[in-house]
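Hi V.,

You were right to ask for the full record rather than a summary. Here it is.
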Amino acid sequence: MCTYLTTDELAERIKYDPRYIRERLKDSVFLEGVHYIRPFGRRKILFIWEAIEEAMTEQSREEAPTIPLRAGGHIRG
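Predicted structure:
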């Protein structure tokens, strides 16, 4: 089951301006068919919350600093 959000609802959840989402994030960070859809082929856009949430947390995990261990390997710091 997916949670569909309008641009304003998404902006409220992630604390970004709706205009920034439309002009900067859409089609560069958020991809049609993955992070948002256009129901019935119309202009209105609905964002898929679960896909966006996954993308945000995945990016954070990739950028988290790691600490090298003496015996090899790393831990997240």
